[in-house]
Design a protein that fits this description.
mainly alpha
């Protein structure tokens, strides 16, 4: 192997230094400025992208705050509408309840009047039937018909004593 020959070691080091300096000059003059320009361009693009992202973030935050404000306003209006609807429903329910109570009270009064009439008619019928039955029982026991007025008076007195 020629690299390990010690007699050729010095010329190899000289050629290494010459090639290294030549490559360094070529790189420093042509490739390094291009790489630097690319890095600077990339740095500028990243900074612009970060600025754009920050602006978009501010816009998103503004839109979010506007959305939350609109949502809170809509909730407030919904609560107001629901409250108004409940109040209206309560008023209508109260009105219908009052109308129904009035109608039912009228019907109850009519029914009570009918019941009172039926009761008085039933009592009158009971009085008449009782007087007739008492007259017939007395006639069958005594063998002669009693006075109808006296029988009615006795039945009325008995009914009065019972109540």
């Amino acid at each position: 192997m020629p690299q390990l020959v010690f007699a050729d070691f010095a010329p190899q080091l000289v050629w290494l230094a010459i090639v290294f300096v030549a490559l360094y000059l070529v790189m420093a003059r042509s490739a390094a400025p291009r790489i630097g320009a690319m890095l600077e361009l990339r740095r500028d693009r990243i900074a612009a992208d970060l600025d754009t992202a920050a602006g978009l973030k501010r816009q998103a935050e503004t839109a979010l705050m506007a959305y939350e404000a609109a949502l809170a306003e809509a909730r407030g209006r919904a609560v107001a509408v629901i409250t108004a609807a409940r109040q209206q429903l309560a008023l209508e329910t109260g009105r219908h309840k009052a109308e129904l109570k009035q109608t039912l009270d009228g019907r109850v009064a009519v029914a009570e009047a009918r019941i009172a009439l039926a009761k008085s008619a039933a009592i009158a019928n009971v009085r008449d039937i009782s007087a007739l039955a008492a007259g017939e029982i007395t006639a069958s026991l005594l063998g002669e018909a009693p006075d109808a007025g006296a029988v009615r008076s006795a039945v009325d007195a008995a009914l009065q004593a019972r109540h």
